[in-house]
Amino acid sequence: MLSEGLGSQLIWLLVVVLVSLLFFWGLASILFRGWDFSWQDIVALYLDGGNFAGKGEHDWFRLIVTLFGLLLFSTLLISVFNNLFDNIVDAVRTGRRRYSLKGHVLILGAGKEVLPILENLRLKLPKQTDIAIMTSTDAEHLKERLTLETGDGAFVSRIYFYQGERNVYQDLKSACAHRCSAIFIIGEDGEENHDSCNMESQKVISRLCEQEALKGDKKMPESIRCYVCLDSDTAIDVVQYDKAPVSTPRLLTDYIGSSDTAVEQLLVHSDFLPVLKEESSRYSHLVIIGCGEIADRVGIVAAHLSHYPRYSDGSLRKTLITFIGEGMRPWMNHLVSQKSNMFELCHYSYISAEGEMEHMEPDERYGDFMDLEWEFIDSDENSPMVRSYLSDCAASEEQVLSVVVCYDSQSRNEDVLVHLPFSLKNCKKGVFVQRRSEILLKAASCSMFGEVMLFGPGSDGYLNNFFPLRCRDGMKVNDVYEKAYGSGRDSRTAWYSICEAHKLSSIYCYEAIGLKQKCFDKDSDEVKLYECEHRRWMAGVLLLGYRAMTPEEIARTRAEGRVKEMKAQFKHVDIVPFEDLPKEEQDKDKVLLDALM
Q: Residue 401 belongs to what domain range?
C-alpha cells in the first residue's frame, strides 16, 4: 500500500504515524505516571532523533520512540515520496494519468488517420487548445512514433497520451470526453470489430454527455462535434440506411468513410478525372487495378462524380468503370449484390482470363437511361490479354483512359505501376499508398512513367479535405435546400437534423460541382447542366440504397399520393430520365446549381 498509488500512500503513512504516536503517548501515560511526558515530547523525538541527546528519564523508552520515528517518519517518508514521484512519472509515461481538461480535442484511437489529423490540427488549431489521444495500445510507443513521424517534438510534447478503451464509459469520463470541443473516433489499425467498436464509442459518449448534463457540469460545452471513422462498406451502408438522425443536441455526429476520404483526395481534390466538354465526343474510362476495400470505394466514388455533358444527344455516351484483378468473379458478385439497385439499371460485363465475355443488360422494366457502365476482367494485370486491352484503350480515340492501382499490398502497387505497358505513359495514373513510399515518389517525379498521383495515408495530401471541411461542403448544399424548401433553420441545426444518407448525398453533390464547372462553359445550355446533375443525383441515391420503380408503379404512387411512403421504403419515383420528371422536380436541380455554380 505504501508503494502504490498516486497519493493514497501518503494517507496510509499518516495513519500509521498517528496511530504509533497515540500508542506511545498512551503507553507512557500508563507506565510512567507522574512523569511530565507530553505528546509534544513524543512528536519531537519522532521528527528529530537529535532530541534524544542529553540526560533524561527513561532513556530506553525514549530510544524506542526515536527509532520508530526514524523508521516510520524519516525513512518511510522518503521512500513513499520516491515511490510517489516514480508512480506519477510511470502513470504519465504509460498513459494511465488523466487530466481535468475542457475545450480540448480528443482523438480516440491511433489508427492510420491519427497522423494526418494531427498535421491538420497543428496547422489550424490555436496553440492554447489542448489535444489528447487515448489508445488501447502502448501510449509511450505511440508518443515516440508520432515524434519521429511528425518531426516536431515540441508539438507532440503538448499532447496528452492516455491508455484506455474508447467504448468503456469510465475511460471516456476520465478523459473528459463530455468536456471536449471535438472528438475524432478513429480506432486502431488491424483490430477486430473496428467499425462496431467506433459506433459503440459514439453511443457511450452520447450517454456520458446526457448524464453529466443532468448533473449540471458547468464545464461542458453546449455541443461537441464528433467524427466517427468507418472502414468497411458494410458499416457505411448500414449507417446510411438508417433514416433517423444520429446526432443529439449535445453530440453533433458525422460518420466518415476513411476509404472515401482517401479516394476523394484523388478524384475530387486533384485533376485526375478527365474534363469532357459538351463538344467532345469522347467518354471517360476509369480502369481500377485491384480487388479490395479501396478498389470498391474508388469505383463507388467515381460513380458518384463521373457525369458529363452530351449524354442525351442520342450517342448514349457512358462513363465506363473497369475492375481488373484475379478472382474477380466472386468479388464482382459481391459488389453487384451489394449495389444491386444500381446494377439493375446499368450495363455490366464479365470478361474471363481467356477473354470470353458475359454481358448483362439493364432490367427492361426500368429502361436504359443510366450514364454508367461497368466491366470486370478476371485476370492478372500482367497477362498478355490485359496488357493488350490496356494498350488498345490508351490508343482509342473514343475514350479518355485513367488508371488507378489500389491493391492492399503496397509493394504490389509499386510493382504494378513500374511495369504497366509503356503505351499508358500519357494516361493519368493514381496509386494508393498506405505508408510513405520513396519508390513511388521517385516514380512520380520520373518522366518514364508519365503523370503519377499518389493518394492514401502515405501521401502528402492525405486528409487535405479535413473531416470538418468535408462536412462544411455538404452543409453548403443542404443550406440551399433548407432555404428553398425547409423551415429556415440555421445551417448547423439543419445539417444535424437529417440522416446520414442525405448528408452523403449533399457532400457528393458539392464535390461534383468542381468537375461540372470545368465541363460546362458559362454559355452552355442550362437544361443540359440540370440534366447532368439529375444523372449524378440518380447514381447517388441508387448507391445510397434507394431502388428505382417501374413507370406503372411511379404513376400509381403519384396518383395515390404515396411518394413519401415509398421513400421510407427506399423506393424513389424520381429515378427516371430528366425529361420524365415533373417540372417541380426539375426545378430542384435548377435551384441547386444556380446557387452553387
A: 265-455
Q: How far apart are CA 322 and CA 284, in angstroms?
A: 11
Q: What angle do CA 589, 592, 597 make, to 5 degrees?
A: 115
Q: Which residues of the chain have pLDDT under 50?
A: 1-2
Phi, psi of 291 (to 5 degrees): -130, 130
Same domain? 274 vs 319: yes
pLDDT of res. 92: 66
Query: Does 362 share its domain with 489?
Result: no
Q: Which residue type does 556 have?
A: R
Measured distance CA(588)–CA(268) in Å, rounded:
24
Cβ neighbours of residue 98 closer than 8 Å, sequence gap 6 or more: 162, 174, 175, 176
Same domain, 112 and 86: no
Q: Do both 81 and 110 map to the same domain?
A: no
How distant is the alpha carbon of residue 279 from its chain centre?
40
CA dist 315 and 399 (Å) reads 13
- Joined together, the cell numbers standing for residue 536 give 449524378
Tell me the backbone φ, ψ of residue 135, rounded to 5 degrees: -125, 150
Q: Which three cell numbers stand for residue 156?
A: 507532440
**55-79 confidence digits (pLDDT tens):** 666 677 778 877 877 777 767 777 7
The strand pair at 283-289 and 399-405 is best described as: parallel
Query: How confident is the model at residue 27, as a pLDDT?
Result: 75
The predicted structure's pLDDT at residue 465: 61
Q: For residue 257, what pLDDT is reported?
A: 86
Cα 227 to chain centroid, rounded: 7
What is the number of alpha carbons within 13 Å of residue 484 lying toward its C-beta? 17
* Cα gap 341→235, rounded to integer Å: 18
Q: What is the DSSP string of 178-245?
A: GG-SEEEE---TT-TTHHHHHHHHHHHHHHHHHHHHHTT-TTS-S-EEEEEEE-SHHHHHHHHH--S-
The pLDDT assigned to 298 comes to: 94
Domain count, the chain: 4
CB 136 within 8 A of CB 164: yes
Query: Residue-wise over 414-427: b if at least 16 C-beta within 10 A, else e?
Result: bebbeebeebbeeb
Give the C-alpha separation, 497 to 252, whole Å. Answer: 10
Neighbours of 332 (CB within 10 A): 22
